[in-house]
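Sample 1 of the test manifest.
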Amino acid sequence: MKVVVTSMGEGVDSEVDPRFGRASKFVLVDTETSETTSADNSAGVDATHGAGVQAAETISRLGAECLITGHCGPKAFRALQAAGIEIYTGASGTVAEAIEQLRSGDLQRSGGPDVGGHWG
Amino acid sequence: MIVAIASGKGGTGKTTVAVNLALSLSGDVQLLDCDVEAPNAHLFLQAEPAGHEVVGIPVPEVDGDLCNQCGECSRLCQYNAIAVLGTSVVVFPELCHGCGGCALVCPENAIREVMRPIGVVEEGHARNVHLVQGRLYVGEALVPPLIREVRAKGHEEGMVLIDAPPGTSCSMIAAVRGSDFVVLVTEPTPFGLNDLALAVETVRTLGIPFGVVINRAGSGDDRVKEYCAAESLEILLEIPDDRRIAEAYARGLTLVDAIPDIRPLFASLAAQIEALPPITAERPAEKSLAHVRP
């Protein structure tokens, strides 16, 4: 399964970025092959509005089937659902630790947005 | 003649000035309450309702059979209001500003525009005042399109007063732009002075002549007056800091009705407004976004 983790930097040793829409980077990990790539999120970081929607579009294009992040707002949630991406929130530590938490079933699958939306 | 009553700071008395000025003018006047997030002139005027119209902005609707997820719409949209997600294109109407660009760039003609209501324009009459107010629906964030619709109700001839929303952002600009004169209401406090200076800068940028009304005069310090003197700004009126004004306001009464000795102050302001030089320049027409383009 292709998993995207929001992160502060590139590679699996980076810290998880708790923000989704304005996360610094996305680390894409294939849990079958352990192949890892990192992607830029400047489009989300620089967005004046709808950073979460923009970020969902970006990771959908990367082929993500699952997202691990800190928090997810209502518009991002709707966008990720439309893209068929599973959402796990409340992650912390490094990207590698977050993937391990997912494997061991320690992350709760998100059934709805866990933070409110915002404007601008 | 279009006269906008504005202020940098909220709660300085824009509506008080607008309503009492309207009632003090000699002839019929139109009052456009453009503070669409909190229209309150009607509370004081007790106008008889005379019309109601829903206002919306055009938002895209995607035909899934025609769409091939090429993403042109999403690349164009600066507000991320339309996104290609997997095999579908999803619209986020609350982010859409109604520019119509997505429908124009779609190579498959898969996008049509539908109206999304954002508020209402209401009209009413009270004495010599024809009141028009915008009321934004709760939870909506896009203010200027509704303000433009209220402005579009303004008469070409005669006296039109605009009660502007506070601040110096796009909603205030939408209310003030195209007016012939601006009355900036402030109060003699540090906040009042700070926000007056911002409003002065804004109105100067818009190139509109203006004057200042100091409300609650005598309650703070002299810095607003010193600023007005340094900037050569005309002080049109000082409304004294008077408990009777607060009491009348709290009861929903107009000052000219409740406090007879306040009347000459507003009569003087009305005389100054009526004596403003006639406007000869062409005004820019306000563009309506209310109706979906064919």
